[in-house]
Amino acid sequence: MGKTTLADILATESGSRLERLSAVMAGVKDIREAASRAEVARGQGQPTLMFLDEIHRLNKSQQDALLPHVESGLLTLIGATTENPSFEVNSALLSRARVHVLKPLDEDELVTVMRQALGDSERGLGSRRIAVDDEILAMLARAAAGDARRALGLLETACDFTVAEGDHERLPREALEAAMGHQASAFDKQGDYYYDLLSAIHKSIRSSRQDAALLYIARFIQGGGDPLDVVRRLAAIASEDVGNADPRALPLVMTAWDATCAWETMRASAPLPMPLSISPWPQRATPSTRHGIVPSHWWPPNPAWRFPTTCATRRPV
């Protein structure tokens, strides 16, 4: 379900007229015109719901122009953003709103959505009578990474490779590779996702989980992150977390730093989480350093990448 679709449902169920604006294109003038139309509609007894896509793209003056209309109740605002609203939305506007996080769908829910599309003759693929195994739908659901729209798109593409079998069609497993193609990672170099991954690397090493650290490094690099950012974080770990408990840790990281700069690749520093993870602590662990915490609002889309919110405690030296 898309954000605009959700706004349409809310407007229909509440009996409101819907104003759609995109913060990428809208300015103060557009907001004022929408408010004027809302005044006319209110005079006719109809409330107005404004859906503002990418609300984090509004600057301070544009958000200030929106505030009095939200405060007076003229506009019921639904703002959609992929960023952290605590940082991107004015506190005055945010204090008058309620934040809801739309979480990814799980595999079973995505399979249900695709089954409905296969059986819907009017809006789906039901008229083609396509037979698809549950295993194939599960693979498509995993590739969709919690996104129903992406799952439906993958299913539609895959159904271009069906083979005829009597009075129906069948989707062979061999067609999935051609249908799915290259799966780009969900990654934003300027958003929370970038720093959440770096934090996950740090906390994984701090909690002696070198396998998790290697996995998060691979996820970071696959998404297009700068390898030097990982090496800088490893240098901080060697200096601050390990410190004098193992004086060899920092020189090891700095050597890998030089090699990474020379090779322009992550191969030089990829093994580093392992020696850092097993290095001793310089002092008895404190409550703030005992637990490796992965932010609860970030979960990798692939269940195989999941990492517990609290990790095992290091043994104090």
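^ that was protein a. below is b, sequence first then the tokens
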Amino acid sequence: MKNYMFDLIINEAWKYQFLTYPNPAVGAAVIVNNQIFTGVHKKAGEPHAEVNALWKAFRAFHKTPELKTSHEIHEFLLQNHKGFFNNANVFVTLEPCSHIGKTPSCANLLKHLKPKSVNIGWPDPVKGHGGGAEILKNAGIDVEILNDKRCFDLIEPFIKWQKRFVFYKLALTMNGVITGGYISSDKSLNWVHQVRDKIDLLVIGGNTVRIDRPTLDARRINGKAPDVLIYSKNDGIERDIPLFNVKNRKVFIEETLEKMNDYKFIMIEGGERLYNEIKHTVDWKVFIVSPKFANRFNFRSEDEFEILHTNRSDDLIIFGR
């Protein structure tokens, strides 16, 4: 049962990978009255995964008001739980937070709700943020930390965001074609725009800019446009290309990648040449594989990577390192 529960909440959390920046992607579940209720952290400043799962479970058996914020939900559960969770089992990919930030402490909430057990996939890696498990143990709750590597993989971007995290994004067909206009589905394009809304810097090769004349914004979701670093050995780039006309962004054209040192969350988009030049220097690689073939020039590279997770929608989104 425990393996099944972690399979479930890890898969749910991966759906929001990168979108929780600067927070980690986290999944949680509560088993109460023989029913399973899942929750995920969706956006920084919004309720954490455990809170969403607990609130979903409580609402299934009680009449409740419509509450949105973490503070409202925490306070309501603290005042109205009446021991409802005492026989519940909680599962969460990351140790419940002990500190108070934009949201209240999840460990403190669980301490008062006092479920039967809390199963934790990975301890909080940030210095000064741990201690949640100890709070729960001191409250008499059965706590187990599994040290599940899959839960570490899930929060690796969060760990590296403390300094810098860089990933390469590449869209391609089943037979490795990356050229010829949009390859990905609308759902995948929307996801890319969601990610662009979160990143600090987008790096792209000069040849891609000259050929594709892109905008590189997040217009599909009305999001913010990241700063852009055009990596090119020579300029020769026309300034009427749409990416130069996006408000509230900086555009750099440089011969080196040193500008990346000024940013924490960086996505690189480009073609074969750029990929082969920097494939060994990025933290992760994300491939959006469209289920179709194209009779055009194939992407060529010699490379191996570890598959961390695959999200399946209209396309396959493969996360690897």
